[in-house]
Amino acid sequence: MSLIYNIGLLVGIQPEGVLRVEGVAQGRTGTLENAWLRIENGRIAGFGDMSSVIPSEASVSLDAQGGMLMPGFCDSHTHVVYVGSRDGEFIDKINGLSYEEIAARGGGILNSANLLQQTSEEALYSQSMSRVREMMDKGTVAIEIKSGYGLSPEAELKMLRVIRRIQKTVPAAVKSTFLGAHAVGRGYTHEEYVQMVIDLIPQAAELADFVDVFCDEGFFTVEDTDRILTAAKGKLVPKIHANELAVSGGVQVGVKHGALSVDHLERTTDAEIDALKGTQTMPTMLPGSSFFLGLPYGRAKDYIKAGLGVALSSDYNPGSSPSGDMRFVMAQGCIKMRLTPVEAFNAVTLNSAYAMGLSREYGSITAGKKAALILTEPGWDLTKLAYQYQTPYIKQVIF
Ligand code: NIG
Ligand code: FE
User: Nearest residue CA, atom 3 of ligand 1?
Assistant: First the structure.
């Protein structure tokens, strides 16, 4: 048993069984000042007030010295398994080319795929691991990682094996997504490629948890998405890239197939909000790609006003969001999407854990959940975390 005591502020307390927060509930979280927290077998075993009876039989005890203790960040949408960099395209972008124009010139996802196909599994693993370590150092305790830079059967499976290896190595929880339908691989017609993705599903399902499709203008259609999700039914749960470049119909086709999340949503109308009401699907927004590509920020506030919950994630990838900093994501939720600090906090913890099927184990301070926590220096609270968004604040990430 371990004990953390002298916690200045314990935040993110939720009752057992709350798997996501929606509408007004997204703006609330349980807090306790001057607290202790007990950990047993890696799980939260209890917590209370310092003036109440403090457990005394601890084998390890940690003086929090007045710091804030919060659940670690959950990042439900990343593409951190890749090689090399796309800094050349960064310069093209500065010089005025759009994401679509860069992709049309053979850059973008195809550029990353060319490099990945020529890279050994070992090198792919070690380059990707350095990003996962960087994210864990910044307080991320649960990560979803997608394939999608392979774009051939061998290279897609290579990516999924690397994700599996990361899963076995790191203390963070890792979920894996088969995103074969990220772009049409070289040497295929569009139709041949969609068929290849469908044919690969049984093998991918042995390695992955989820299936994703980039359902957007210039990439895959609603019809392609429907076919792929139909083929994956009963094998892989959908999480969809939708409405980044256009109002694509991706939300509706995702909802139709019971998607766990629909992600991006930079371009949405009220129809998408209506389609999500009463469903199990978590709308997930990726402010890092709005920032990097100069796209509109998602209408998170409108979703919450409509009674829905919203998750925020990093989209860490070489083309549209080269950062996995979830504290910056939270700050952008406040600064650019006008979420309150508590709404943004729930978006990067409990709701993002939900968006990758992990909210029974992660995302809040709840007895029985994994003790995957961030302990801050003294004097921090959620508002200051988002407001003073670049000041170092982490004292320790606890797994
Ligand atoms: O989520 N939009 C599609 N996929 C990634 C970007 C991939 C890339 O450009 O490498 C995204 O933004
Ligand atoms: Fe993405």
Answer: 214
Q: Please name which of 395, 353, 350, 346 lies closest in space to residue 374, comparing C-alpha atoms.
A: 395
Give the pLDDT of residue 106: 83
Residue type, 187: G
Atom 12 of ligand 1 has which residue's CA nearest to it? 320
Mutate to test the pocket of ligand 1, among 317, 321, 323, 329 (most ligand atoms within 8 A of CB): 317
The CATH code that applies to domain 2-71+364-398 is: 2.30.40.10
Note if the pTM is more than 0.90.
Answer: yes
CATH number of 74-354: 3.20.20.140
Nearest alpha carbon, ligand 1 atom 1: 315
269-325 per-position pLDDT tens digit: 999 999 999 999 999 999 999 999 999 999 999 999 999 999 999 999 999 999 999
| CB distance 341 to ligand 1 below 6 Å | no
335-378 pLDDT tens trace = 999 999 999 999 999 999 999 999 999 999 999 999 999 999 99
Cα 180 to middle of ligand 2, angstroms: 12
